[in-house]
Amino acid sequence: MKFLPRTVGMLTMMALLVVALSSMGCTGETNTGDFVVKNGVLTRYAGADPVEVGDSPPDDIEVGMVVNIPDNLGITAIGGLAFSYRPGISEVTIPKGVVSIGEGAFGNCTGLASVTIPDTLESIGNGAFAGCSSLTSVSIPDSVTSIGPSAFSDCSSLASVTMGSGVTSIGNHAFSGTKLSSPVIINDGKTLYYVPPGLTSYTIPDTVTTINDYAFSN
């Protein structure tokens, strides 16, 4: 009987360990260096940021953080808000295999000047890059079919978008608050999505059969 307390204590510790291990197995979450991955989704960037939230991005963008997401993590999606409010990030390379970028994933990364999007990507979520005020250009690969509302809204330096041929759907206000000077036409030239507010004249191409509700807003 005198060994009973010790036995009970050991059993309790073992039970707690089993519960902890079971919990880890259920979440499926893995912390791989700077990246937290759960079931193929990069849910959070855990790397340090040299610029505090609320500060301006570095004057010399070259001193900002360059983030290369490893292609050996088995990532198929960038989760919502995964990189949001990281003003020190200046460049991001998204690896092949990623098919979706979640809502607000890179929102308000005010120092982000360059993003490389793979040709496996299919969708860009709502507000995915909203408020990325240092982003000047973006190339959307042919694999992308949909771009969510406000995806690039308030990217105040964005002056050039190369639109892939596969895009058939763009949400409202996806490019509001940008510096785009050329209209955005999608769906094999059939849909006029956006006409920049500063444009003084524009001839709608004969191929256009549909005009987006907010194409001529502002």
UniProtKB/TrEMBL annotation:
Pfam families the UniProt entry points to: LRR_5 (PF13306)
Organism superkingdom: Bacteria
Cross-referenced SUPFAM superfamilies: L domain-like
InterPro entries on file: LRR_5, LRR_dom_sf, Surface_bspA-like
Keyword Signal recorded: yes
Signal peptide: 1-25
Alphabetized UniProt keyword annotations: Signal
PROSITE patterns reported for this sequence: PROKAR_LIPOPROTEIN
Keyword Nuclease: no
Protein name according to UniProt: Leucine-rich repeat domain-containing protein
Organism: Desulfoscipio gibsoniae DSM 7213
